[in-house]
Design goal:
The protein has seven helices and nine strands. It is of the alpha+beta class. The chain has one domain (4-207): Gcn5-related N-acetyltransferase (GNAT) (Aminopeptidase, 3-Layer(aba) Sandwich). Strand 4 and strand 5 (97-105) form a beta hairpin. Helix 1 packs across helix 3.
């Protein structure tokens, strides 16, 4: 049995107000487990996001993301103010956050917080970009590695492009994060060797 996604009719426009989440689809995985795909993030989702970002036992998350600083120690409101559009995958029975993704304007090749210098961090809120939009995604235990992310992110991309059809998407991260970069490749992203940072082992991939 393959994953199936059943869209929920809606007429939402972006950006959504802060702490707003609307169901846009039902996701049923290959084992028959049901999830809600949410556009936006309400306070319940953000609370889970913060808790998971602070979980130091999740070494994959801590080693490969800036979420401990971004969501655990930082302001969600400030992050959202940068034009971010979040999507959440929420397990229906337990209401647990299974995966989280976001899009938003960001200059091509601009690294995440984990890789920025102090001077670059001070400029983070002053970026002006319209053409290139970043895509970032996370999956959380115990749902990581269960075959959910490809279909979830593919659906999120299609939804986001309805609102921003001219946007060029890019992803970036640790070149050794085979799962994340492999997913990007399966989604049609292509590596940009000219943006590879050998010192920080950071790479970018684009989908134009």
């Amino acid at each position: 049995m393959a994953n199936t996604i059943t869209p929920t009719p809606h007429q939402l426009s972006l950006p959504l107000p802060l702490y707003t989440a609307e169901k846009i689809a039902t996701f049923t995985d290959s084992r028959g487990e049901s999830f809600d795909i949410m556009l936006g993030a309400d306070e319940s989702i953000v609370q889970q996001l913060r808790k998971k970002s602070l979980d130091t036992t999740d070494t994959d998350l801590q080693d490969n993301t800036s979420d401990f600083k971004r969501f655990g120690g930082g302001s969600y409101e400030e992050w959202y103010s940068k034009g971010r559009t979040p999507f959440a995958l929420v397990h229906q029975a337990s209401v647990a956050l299974a995966a989280f993704a976001w899009f938003g304007p960001k200059p091509l090749g601009r690294k995440s917080l984990k890789y920025l210098s102090e001077a670059e961090l001070k400029e983070e809120l002053n970026q002006k970009e319209k053409t290139w939009h970043t895509l970032v995604y996370r999956s959380y235990l115990p749902y990581r590695g269960k075959g959910l992310m490809g279909d979830f992110i593919r659906f999120a991309i299609a939804e986001y492009r309805k609102h921003y059809p001219e946007a060029k998407l890019w992803v970036g991260g640790n070149a050794d994060n085979a799962a994340s970069m492999g997913l990007a490749e399966r989604l049609g992203f292509k590596r940009r060797d000219d943006l590879f940072d050998a010192e920080k082992n950071w790479m970018a991939m684009v989908q134009e």
